[in-house]
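[09:14] KT: can someone run the structure on this one? pasting the chain below
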Amino acid sequence: MAAALDHVVINVLRRMDEAAALFAALGFTLTPRGRHSLGSVNHLMMADGAYLELVGVPAEGLQRQDVLDSPFGLNGLVLNADDADQTFARLARNGLAPSEPVAFSRPVEIDGARHEARFRTVRLAPERFPAGRVYFCQHLTPELVWRPEWLVHPNRFLGLSRIEVASRSPATDAAAYAVAANAAAEQTCGDPRVTLPDFVIDVVPGDRARFAVLELVFDGLEAIEARARATPGAVWTRDRSTAGATLALPGFDLVLACRSAR
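[09:31] RB: done, structure tokens below
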């Protein structure tokens, strides 16, 4: 069975305050700021399935090197791992040169009590995935991540449905994503597509490798459109032919396709 998407990462480096304020203004419910034991900070925008993460580094103290070394903007495609050790073994057998599983945590406060959200990740060699970081995440404490109070968004955000990956070698890169996800690469309108449960990876020709567009799903576009049009730094464009829209956030090098679930 193909691996499911766990989450997609937006790297904001040292601009977390600005990024969090922007996404809150756009109507997303952000989880309280988390501080990873590896030296990064984050906010999550949760959904019933895969979620969106803002990640950066703190102003002081330990700073996570792989975040500092990663491109700004959309940069992190994270698949779900039921067991990090088994995932590592499968990826190694398939020649993807994964890193050994890494354990880390971040504190979470629930109803006034402190808990520790714990994870194990397996990262894939960046040279195999030039568009951005690709790794697997095993949630050891999912009940501290998927909380009902974080699943409701004023802009009616529901989840993630598609990512468009620009590539100089679409067929080669699509094959690598397919092997990583234990899925098949198929041709769609001439470009390869890798289909995961409830998510697709479209690999398209581009002048440079990058995660180009992420598609978000909303329960109607009226709320997100109103927020986007009222938010400085956001550019909202409706596509009448598809009934969808594009939300561009140039300050964070982001292009987000928006579609309605109804």
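[09:33] KT: thanks! The longest helix spans residues 170-181.
[09:34] RB: yep, looked fine to me
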